[in-house]
Amino acid sequence: MVEEDLNQVVGNSNYNGEADPESNTLNQPLVKANRTLSSTPLALVGTKVSHIESLDYEINENDLFKHDWRKRSKAQVLQYVFLKWTLACLVGLFTGLIATLINLAVENIAGYKLLAVGHFLSQERYATGLMVLAGANLGLTLVASVLCVFFAPTAAGPGIPEIKAYLNGVDLPNMFGATTMIVKIIGSIGAVAAGLDLGKEGPLVHIGSCIASLLGQGGTDNHRIKWRWLRYFNNDRDRRDLITCGSAAGVCAAFRSPVGGVLFALEEVATWWRSALLWRTFFSTAVVVVILREFIEICNSGKCGLFGRGGLIMFDVSHVTYTYHVTDIVPVMLIGVIGGILGSLYNHVLHKVLRLYNLINEKDEICPTNGRSGNFKQFHCPKGYYNDLATLLLTTNDDAVRNLFSSNTPNEFSMGSLWIFFVLYCILGLFTFGIATPSGLFLPIILMGAAYGRMLGAAMGSYTSIDQGLYAVLGAAALMAGSMRMTVSLCVIFLELTNNLLLLPITMIVLLIAKTVGDSFNPSIYDIILDLKGLPFLDANPEPWMRNLSVGELGDAKPPVVTLQGVEKVSKIVDVLRNTTHNAFPVLDEAELPQVGLATGATELHGLILRAHLVKVLKKRWFLTEKRRTEEWEVREKFPWDELAEREDNFDDVAITSSEMEMFVDLHPLTNTTPYTVMENMSVAKALVLFRQVGLRHLLIVPKIQSSGLCPVVGILTRQDLRAHNILQAFPQMEKSKGRKAN
Amino acid sequence: MVEEDLNQVVGNSNYNGEADPESNTLNQPLVKANRTLSSTPLALVGTKVSHIESLDYEINENDLFKHDWRKRSKAQVLQYVFLKWTLACLVGLFTGLIATLINLAVENIAGYKLLAVGHFLSQERYATGLMVLAGANLGLTLVASVLCVFFAPTAAGPGIPEIKAYLNGVDLPNMFGATTMIVKIIGSIGAVAAGLDLGKEGPLVHIGSCIASLLGQGGTDNHRIKWRWLRYFNNDRDRRDLITCGSAAGVCAAFRSPVGGVLFALEEVATWWRSALLWRTFFSTAVVVVILREFIEICNSGKCGLFGRGGLIMFDVSHVTYTYHVTDIVPVMLIGVIGGILGSLYNHVLHKVLRLYNLINEKDEICPTNGRSGNFKQFHCPKGYYNDLATLLLTTNDDAVRNLFSSNTPNEFSMGSLWIFFVLYCILGLFTFGIATPSGLFLPIILMGAAYGRMLGAAMGSYTSIDQGLYAVLGAAALMAGSMRMTVSLCVIFLELTNNLLLLPITMIVLLIAKTVGDSFNPSIYDIILDLKGLPFLDANPEPWMRNLSVGELGDAKPPVVTLQGVEKVSKIVDVLRNTTHNAFPVLDEAELPQVGLATGATELHGLILRAHLVKVLKKRWFLTEKRRTEEWEVREKFPWDELAEREDNFDDVAITSSEMEMFVDLHPLTNTTPYTVMENMSVAKALVLFRQVGLRHLLIVPKIQSSGLCPVVGILTRQDLRAHNILQAFPQMEKSKGRKAN
């Protein structure tokens, strides 16, 4: 998995890399840091700048956790497995219900809006009609953005990049909370019903993840169900699995594509994956599909107001048949190539636009957490356009797609109106994305792609017999592959949308070509957004130059490690917690030779203790009057393991008296005695593989030669230290040896 | 990923585990090994007992490899990427062509055979007809098994368990060679044309993998193309990726199911997976599908002899329409439950039958490598049955499936004949599997499942309006899920077979129920076969009791580590190579304090050297007359890196004179200086996670306290040492704490 990635030192996904691999020889002196390795723990989550941390998938082998799983009974384990499946089922159930709700609300609101406008138009009261339409749209959009800005800035945008980062191991505060979910639901309804150029697909994925997270922790942060069973889910690993289920359920609900949902979660969202997860996400999407099917049956009997045939089955083109022949390979390849170019162009322009927004924001404000979200209001201005467009088409976006995909309609859309549609949606798509509302990227790209495909079809004229509707479908697939760079999941989603397996080979070809072409220009749209937001996403493949740098050199560029003694003074602990921001500290001990029980005068590494556990110790005031090792039962009484699993690091409200400051704490039972370690001469590339594959939060660097006088730990690496961008700031000369990286 | 698996200490996949987790407390004395940890490196590959080794996905950071990738130019890297995609395309191309060839051959041979028999029957010469049929079938089967027995025992059986083990990191000799492939192709044609109860699906997967392996290494072992470009693929990682592509292409060719092929590789076969691989396997299967489509077009014009509509589109039931209603949920669930029970029952019985065969073989022979394969001849006897059955049905297995799946045929098959069919195929399926011919498991299970489904449908009578053909499809799906435990890939394969997306929810429910029911009884059929063959497959989830054992204790149960000095005497190296079977040796050095350059009298760990590289040193006679460190260029001239990448450990033909024995070798430049290490107190569970996630071959155990007098390495762990089965033999008391393990 690893060297392979390093071997293929070429490629496409490194956005601005220049290569000069010849310049390195083995005899070259070791690189020296010309400034310290610094990293900012801030990133944009939604539209809010947040302090981010890493998740931790390591097995924490401290005495308390060890004791807990040793005594866990079979019944408890059965409870756990049962609950796991129940939660997967509930995730599917709620996602399906909320997707139905959103669809019903959007179709009804947009329907009554358009009915009212039509009413005025038919009475030839054009001005009033326009006013009503503009007013309704403005109102709906305002509801969406005001909610986002004031209540849940994390609900803005599609949410998919953040989910991707979370599943990669980046903890994002407030990203999966109840407020975020409710604002996302209402905001989505408002924005889509207002006819903005955005879709409900991305938001549905985020909503699915929110449901999963809320179910897993038993409620909102403030009102949790204190159910004993749920405590098993209070760890990063189970939460990750649940959120993966949620995102798959969301995609399934958006496209009514169960297999596509599973594959989307696998291909685009998840970082770690295993067969068991495949099965569980599949279960969630199966539940969603059953729910959607039921509601379609109910709505078919006319009980859903103005719902009709819209919304739920997003682009039900399954009753349409397409035919094609072997000679049609030329236009098909053309669709792929142009789609790839257009897709990467879209990524490029969106990148520029988003950077422009970032620049404006940086100039405007010093304190980012307060004002930033407010800034996005300025993007509400181009709302006039939407009204024009709504008047032009007087339909929802879903219907527009359905019309464009329809077959046997070669003359229904003139080249001129297709051009207007395409250009307008390009511009709108780019600008709308910055608005502080829940906004999906799928629909705008599908709309543009469908228009582009039809235009290409019209331009090909009588060369092929491919239906114009098929051109639209393939154009949409090509543009999505060119921009989002999905292949298998997109193929399956389109398959499940069009319900025509005979289209499979042709769709595959288009997708493969479009992705290849797009990859040769820039990374996928989600990677660009991840990068812009500053989310510390760890790539599967280390950069090639990381092989030329050792973790020891990287550790030297950081401030010295802060260590604690096995039995430590309270004052030292308070001091360390106050004056550092580290989330874990190595615990050292007097070394004893095992054979003779003799102190050697040297120090040994006992393990790693988490900041959260130190805070817990202070909060519980678990202090000893003398410097001694404690018995295991003493600790167990004080610290139930499920409390230790909580991530808590705020100790401002802990007041410690000066006499307590002189007391001691035995850190041994709370220390993870087996942290993963690497030797200082290991290359960063190799350490990164370990870090990412095992899902670590901290990685200890140990010296190659351990001797009595030396500290047994020379450094700690975190996610931020292993990011290429941060390393290059401390070691700019590495850039010289920076090759391009391939898939 | 990790603790989650350990938390869920329950479940279903541990075949014979009993749980008593209460019996462990933290104060319990440390477990002691009551016998040494022994492991046999022998396993059944096909029908041949072979010596197996591990693959190695670690980045080998020795000076020579380091030098090579530092000087690799951009053009070379582009070559590499280009070649990678070309190979993926060629894998698809050849797999598609060979699948077509097999289908054409089978249909034509079986067709002429049946025509001849029909000719005699129509002349009322029954005895002659029966003789011809029996003779033809006997001949075809003999060709298949004689080839297997005498030329390529590795070609016997389905091959999928071996591929699964290979992709998990187990190297299997002769598994993917040219002889194996050719025998597999001819054997498949013979066995399937003879009408045996076996399919060509499993063999096609194996053939795809063989093609991938042969292409990757540039030809057969003896006749390789010495093309410079190909040397980049001479490593375990690239070979693994190619073979994954090959297996996906094989499934795609078997079922004409491109997405299903990708998912099968992902869900059932591969251990490591990443998005890039998803895309490349998808490309391979796309090529296969295009090839198959072309051939179908050609055959439709009647140029394929007796091919007609058979074979290639295995079970083309796409023109059949099925309908179902919400009330049909009861029979659907029933199908799933019974399918799960039957599937696990099938696994259970097959397990017993295969064990019986193993026992017979063990009694019969001492030397397993010679005689074992011959033993399987005894299973040729029940061939009379097939002739009966062929006379009964007078059709190929593919046609039987097609007939069973056909809709609107409620009365075509009587309950009696379905029973005979079902029972016969159950018995035959179990016995045929032991024959030394290429044999797929898919088709027998599909046949049984289809018959079972129809029987259930007939038994349900007028309760539901589900078509009998749909019952057959669902029955086949249920039995496959109950036996093979695939979900998503199976769902997609059935979807692509039936070309009816409306069946999706119903198929999902059946699959989920059948898998759940099956999992509660025993592991999947492939896991059972893997276990029986003794292939050291590493599971994703450590056993719960592995948390109670430290790697130090595990290391103590092994013989002491054999170490080498940085500059070592030739005689010591020869001695070590002769008298041990280890594949890597830690290299120790005099430790120097970095600051002062002073020898401390202590030893330090320089790294790990591979046996293959030591053999290379001896073969190249790279000896020094004095004990000194060499310059890097001296080594580079002697050892081109692509030669070092070869896996070579036979040095019987190396004759070393007694004066050479007294010379020295500088092992430093050939030593991997950064092997992954764990401290001795780490639990086996945690070490196993590292081992499997990173894909290691060797893992060094370092002492917790390093001091001058102690060796810096206390042990080496290999794949065999980390297998639950081997550990339990040395630490039987761990079994007491052995819980059951869930997905």
Automatic annotation (TrEMBL), chains A, B:
<dbReference type="InterPro" id="IPR002251">
    <property type="entry name" value="Cl_channel_pln"/>
</dbReference>
<dbReference type="InterPro" id="IPR000644">
    <property type="entry name" value="CBS_dom"/>
</dbReference>
<dbReference type="InterPro" id="IPR046342">
    <property type="entry name" value="CBS_dom_sf"/>
</dbReference>
<keyword id="KW-0677">Repeat</keyword>
<keyword id="KW-0407">Ion channel</keyword>
<feature type="domain" description="CBS">
    <location>
        <begin position="671"/>
        <end position="733"/>
    </location>
</feature>
<keyword id="KW-0129">CBS domain</keyword>
<feature type="domain" description="CBS">
    <location>
        <begin position="557"/>
        <end position="626"/>
    </location>
</feature>
<keyword id="KW-0472">Membrane</keyword>
<protein>
    <recommendedName>
        <fullName>Chloride channel protein</fullName>
    </recommendedName>
</protein>
<dbReference type="Pfam" id="PF00654">
    <property type="entry name" value="Voltage_CLC"/>
</dbReference>
<feature type="transmembrane region" description="Helical">
    <location>
        <begin position="501"/>
        <end position="518"/>
    </location>
</feature>
<feature type="transmembrane region" description="Helical">
    <location>
        <begin position="172"/>
        <end position="196"/>
    </location>
</feature>
<feature type="transmembrane region" description="Helical">
    <location>
        <begin position="80"/>
        <end position="106"/>
    </location>
</feature>
<comment type="similarity">
    <text>Belongs to the chloride channel (TC 2.A.49) family.</text>
</comment>
<feature type="transmembrane region" description="Helical">
    <location>
        <begin position="330"/>
        <end position="350"/>
    </location>
</feature>
<dbReference type="Pfam" id="PF00571">
    <property type="entry name" value="CBS"/>
</dbReference>
<keyword id="KW-1133">Transmembrane helix</keyword>
<keyword id="KW-0812">Transmembrane</keyword>
<keyword id="KW-0813">Transport</keyword>
<feature type="transmembrane region" description="Helical">
    <location>
        <begin position="272"/>
        <end position="292"/>
    </location>
</feature>
<dbReference type="InterPro" id="IPR001807">
    <property type="entry name" value="ClC"/>
</dbReference>
<keyword id="KW-0869">Chloride channel</keyword>
<dbReference type="InterPro" id="IPR051280">
    <property type="entry name" value="Cl-channel/antiporter"/>
</dbReference>
<dbReference type="InterPro" id="IPR014743">
    <property type="entry name" value="Cl-channel_core"/>
</dbReference>
<keyword id="KW-0406">Ion transport</keyword>
<feature type="transmembrane region" description="Helical">
    <location>
        <begin position="126"/>
        <end position="152"/>
    </location>
</feature>
<feature type="transmembrane region" description="Helical">
    <location>
        <begin position="304"/>
        <end position="324"/>
    </location>
</feature>
<keyword id="KW-0868">Chloride</keyword>
<feature type="transmembrane region" description="Helical">
    <location>
        <begin position="418"/>
        <end position="436"/>
    </location>
</feature>
<keyword id="KW-0851">Voltage-gated channel</keyword>
